[in-house]
Design goal:
Strand content: 5-15%
Structural class: alpha+beta
Distance between the termini: 27 Å
Radius of gyration: 21 Å
Strand order of the largest sheet: 5-6-4-7
Number of helices: 11
Shape: elongated
Order of helices and strands: HEHHEEHHEHEEHEHHHH
Length: 254
């Protein structure tokens, strides 16, 4: 994890705002290369932070933007995903790409994963969300095969939405991922440990969280299967980040 991204994650953990002095303190522990000033410029240019005030960095405040907060969460806002409404319609993408176009098939599957489609069977994928943005991205990246078909459907003939979810996404694997991530949260340093131990823990936490973001489709709440632990784990992550922020406050006050 690059120093600038770690800075964004630390900002989120600290409540979204830090003094310039605290930022400098963090940078000395987060990054072994690169210049703090240039990294902050890049973060501001990309809309992840705002520098408030004028003069020397130590007299300014660093604030996290909404884009920055999303970046710290792996590019997603889980609570919004779980609470979004569902119109009870499934969007289905089907395609038939010949072996000679294996590279195109790989690019298409990668794009489907990015949009959190579930793999139903063979070359049939589904999502509970409208797919206008997905189609636009395919055109942008020239990954739109001639054989692509889009459908909207609802289960019939005894099929249930629960069965569709279980077939399309591997929730047992996700459950194992969440169990592993909870263990990472459990291993976070205590209040008596030096702040450097929190920095080391943060690297471990970010690897675990990135895996969760890859695995979890973050479906609307009404589609989540029994035993799903995402919301519980999210609350535990917020608690751990609160402790990180308290440790940072303590470290920069001494």
């Amino acid at each position: 994890m690059a120093g600038s991204l770690r800075m964004v994650v630390c900002l989120a953990a600290a409540g979204g705002e830090l003094s310039g002095t605290a930022v400098r303190f963090l940078w000395e522990r987060l990054s072994r290369r690169g210049r703090l000033g240039r990294s902050l410029e890049r973060l501001e240019e990309t809309g992840k932070i705002r520098l408030v005030g004028a003069g020397h960095l130590d007299q300014r405040i660093l604030r996290l933007t909404e884009d920055g907060r999303r970046a710290a969460q792996g590019g997603i806002d889980p609570p919004s995903c779980w609470s979004r409404p569902w119109d009870r319609r499934w969007r289905i993408v089907a395609f038939d790409i010949p072996e000679a176009s294996a590279a195109l098939r790989t690019r298409l599957r990668r794009r489907l994963h990015e949009f959190r489609f579930g793999w139903l069977q063979n070359s049939v994928w589904l999502s509970p969300d409208p797919i206008d943005e997905f189609r636009a991205k395919l055109h942008e990246k020239t990954t739109f095969p001639d054989s692509l078909t889009f459908l909207e459907a609802s289960p019939v003939g005894g099929e249930s939405n629960d069965a569709m979810v279980s077939a399309a996404w591997d929730f047992p694997v996700l459950a194992k991922g969440y169990a592993d991530y909870l263990e990472i949260l459990r291993l976070r340093p205590g209040s008596r440990r030096p702040f450097e131990s929190w920095v080391n823990w943060l690297r471990l936490e970010q690897r675990g969280w990135r895996r969760i973001v890859r695995l979890d489709p973050f479906l609307p709440r009404e589609l989540l299967p029994a035993g799903y632990r995402g919301e519980q784990v999210w609350a535990a992550r917020q608690e751990a980040f609160g402790e990180f922020g308290a440790a940072l406050t303590k470290a920069t006050a001494t």
